[in-house]
Design goal:
Layout: H1 7-36, H2 40-78, H3 82-106, H4 108-115, H5 123-135, H6 138-154, H7 158-181, H8 186-211, H9 225-256, H10 261-297, H11 300-327, H12 329-337, H13 344-375, H14 381-405, H15 408-428, H16 440-466, H17 468-471, H18 476-499, H19 504-512
Length: 515
């Protein structure tokens, strides 16, 4: 008998740990901005760190886990050899990644040019190659971490997997501070923190899987029928992951031709990734194994309800965050980043990118809600086709508008492509018996959430004008930004209660029952 995941409590668990991780990540970037600004060392680190993360999303969190988690969850539900399946998957992925890492280290100059050809001929290129070779082995550790995290998530043990990224940020912050306090090469200290953080994360989740009763040890890689099936399912998702990374490459390439833009876009990315990671990642992590197990049990109506409730809660949290990023980006960026090597010009450029990314935030989050509808059915081909269409849109906007609006074209391309991808995903679910069809409760909540956001937006605009002088004054600006955010949150909370957008009784019931 299926025992589905309690959706809201699991979401709050993942969201809570992810929130802490993202706050630490923001603290790491604030520290890096103060020590390195948007200069050559910062830009070289960001390119070098992006490379293993790009391939990690391509292989592990993208293709492999999208295919692996539903297949593992279904075997777990059916009482089949889920542990053996996980061991084979870990061994095959690990062997492949070791070979891939060695090739990547040798090909690093070409990888850097593929990521940021605007660096060619200046100090940023040599720094990026050196840093890239140090950071690239991270892909092995973090990809295996992602696979073992998928095992924990399918077992309903979300906390440890969600907490693992906290180790990465703590290690990176510690290395930055050590480099600063010892008067050493801060850039080198920072880049060496990357593989060390990867080892720490892998050790944590490996221990957690053993504690959960699924001790997984590497075995000799072998291409069993199950691994062949996994590869068949993963291949389209891998191609889709490649398309997503091409979007990233387009953005980095556009930014590399504008001095400082790689750093501006990265700092802006950190800000919009905070709500995206907390809400979108959390709900996607929880929803995928839940939908896969419901599908195995034939619970179509329960799956549809889970998607609608996930949409309702994510929009209630994401829409106000998106509007805040669009309405008050300058105060947010100035207070968080403007100090030391990060000046007013950097603030203005980063704030522009933040506002553009904010406009796409609801689309990015809802993709995390709707994509599991496909992946739970082991359908990775359809999202791939949609991703190709979105990639073409992104490239057209970013490359076509860069000569006219500069580096902001990279952010705009990402946002427009996000909405195009969402529309395609939602329309495509009609072939799955309306698996993502909007139910009556969600139709009722959406306009009320939108109205509440408009109330909050008006309060934020008025509050920013009222606190303008304090926001620009050292020592006062931190409290002023906290007050401004508090006013926005309070006004939104009051509005959702007044409009009935979110009812307290619904939340309490969701926390009590096993949905």
């Amino acid at each position: 008998m299926i025992r589905p995941i309690r959706l809201l409590p699991a979401f709050l668990t993942v969201g809570g740990w992810t929130m802490l991780s993202r706050i630490l990540g923001l603290a790491r970037d604030v520290l890096m901005a103060a020590l390195l600004g948007a200069g050559p060392v910062a830009q070289a680190f960001l390119i070098a760190f992006t490379l293993p993360n790009m391939f990690r999303r391509f292989f592990a969190e993208g293709a492999f886990n999208i295919a692996f988690v539903p297949m593992f969850a279904k075997r777990l539900e059916a009482g089949e050899d889920a542990a053996g399946f996980a061991r084979d998957a870990l061994s095959n992925l690990g062997a492949f990644l070791i070979v891939f890492t060695l090739v990547g280290i040798m090909a690093m100059p070409w990888l850097v040019l593929a990521m940021a050809s605007g660096f060619h001929g200046d100090i940023r290129f040599e720094l990026s190659v050196t840093h890239g070779r140090i950071a690239f082995p991270y892909i092995v550790f973090i990809s295996l971490t992602a696979l073992l995290s998928g095992v924990l998530n399918a077992l309903g043990r979300f906390a440890l997997a969600a907490a693992a990224p906290i180790l990465m940020n703590l290690v990176m912050i510690a290395f930055l501070l050590i480099g600063y306090w010892t008067g050493g090469n801060i850039g080198l200290w920072q880049i060496w923190s990357v593989p060390v953080a990867g080892i720490a994360q892998l050790a944590l989740v490996w221990w957690g899987v053993g504690r959960a009763g699924f001790p997984i040890r590497p075995v000799r890689p072998r291409l069993t029928p199950e691994m062949r099936r996994l590869a068949v399912v993963a291949a389209p998702a891998m191609l889709a992951g490649g398309v997503v990374q091409i979007n990233l490459l387009v953005g980095r390439q556009v930014g590399s031709f504008f001095d400082g833009a790689v750093a501006w876009l990265s700092y802006a990315d950190r800000l919009y990734q905070l709500p995206l990671g907390v809400v979108g990642l959390a709900i996607g992590v929880v929803l995928l194994p839940d939908l896969a197990r419901r599908l195995r049990a034939g619970d179509t109506e329960g799956g549809r309800s889970a998607v609608n409730r996930a949409s309702e809660f994510t929009l209630a949290l994401t829409l106000p965050a998106a509007l805040a990023l669009m309405v008050i980006p300058v105060p947010i960026v100035a207070v968080l980043f403007q100090r030391g090597a990060f000046g007013p010009e950097d603030t203005a450029a980063t704030a522009l990118a933040v506002a553009i990314y904010g406009a796409g935030l609801p689309a990015f989050v809802l993709q995390k809600v709707i994509s599991p509808v496909y992946y739970a059915r082991e359908d990775t081909r359809t999202p791939f086709r949609y991703a190709v269409h979105a990639m073409l849109v992104n490239a057209g906007v970013a490359l076509g508008l860069a000569p006219f609006i500069g580096f902001a074209a990279a952010a705009l391309g990402t946002t427009v492509a996000g909405w195009v991808m969402l529309v395609q995903l939602w329309r495509g679910t009609r072939s799955f018996d309306g698996a993502a069809a909007i139910d009556t409760r969600l139709k009722r909540a959406l306009p009320r959430i939108a109205l509440s956001c408009l109330v909050m937006g008006a309060v934020l605009l008025a509050g920013a004008a009222w606190l303008g002088e304090a926001l620009a004054t050292d020592y006062l600006r931190y409290g002023a930004l906290a007050l401004l955010v508090g006013l926005g949150a309070a006004s939104y909370g009051a509005a959702v209660l007044a409009t009935g957008a979110i009812r307290g009784a619904d939340i309490r019931a969701a926390l009590r029952r096993r949905t």
